[in-house]
Sequence to fold (309 residues):
Amino acid sequence: MSFLVVSPGKDPKAWVEALKNQHPGLNVYVYPEDHDKEEVEFALSWNHPRGIFQNYPNLKVVASMGAGVDHITSDKELPENIKITKVVDDRLEEDMGTFVLSLVLAHQRNLLEYREKQINEKWEPVSYTRNDQVKVGILGIGNLGQSVSKCLLKNGFQVRGFSKNKKDFDHVESFAGEDEFDDFLEQSDILVNMLPLTAETEKILNKELFEKLPKDAYVINVARGEHLVEQDLLAKIDDGHLSGAALDVFWEEPIRPEHPFWKHPKIRVTPHVASVTHPESVVPQIIENYERMKEEEELKNLVKRDRGY
Ligand code: OXD
Fold:
């Protein structure tokens, strides 16, 4: 019985080390090194080449290296019987919370604008709204969204959460379903996208949605680049409806050198760093699932394949 690590473009060394530390007897192969495909029952993956898992006749589980699983679910050739798991990790949640809080505060206190002024040697104070007057809408409030909401609440912001089904979180006004979507948007001075990427949510951040946000709303995307219609965002910032955006994820990563986001004065670009998985922190849960698979027990953090997350 063997374990496969597949992560093209991402150095697997720290993962392999953490797996071996946690489970010294584990036989770990790293794709595409030479290995016996029939032996592999469990794969740990990030952006695997499409279709490869069809060639593993005994593969039972594909575990994502991160919280997102769209890189696995989008593989149309993934055999139906293979189970998918995601990472749920306190450290990821904390990091996401503090990252989004930093972006919200930086926007709220005009830090990007001051950087611009500094470059031009301009000493010009700008007025700002106090946190308790600002409504932040979290689009897709799951574990990570809940952590973001806690950080925001601690700093006095008003928090709204939107999810498919109503969720009850302390001090968060909850909106759910299509009927409440427009109300949610109309009340979001800052919109934080944290949705999973599915066929339903792709391109959800589009002109129609932006127009439902209040004038001068700010958009933060820490979910997936494919949620965003880039041209619509640029148009709505440039026509003055939106005050700007902070983007951590993109259709193409890294974004190409001439991409308009790089130099846009109202767009903050970060290189997909909102919450970065630490192998030593999440390997214990991966190994636990490997043991559960062997014992034919229910897996933790299992993805519902029909739902896509
Ligand atoms: C993730 C990510 O899904 O880093 O974990 O985007």
User: Anything to note?
Assistant: Residues 66-68, 277 surround oxalic acid (CB under 6 Å).
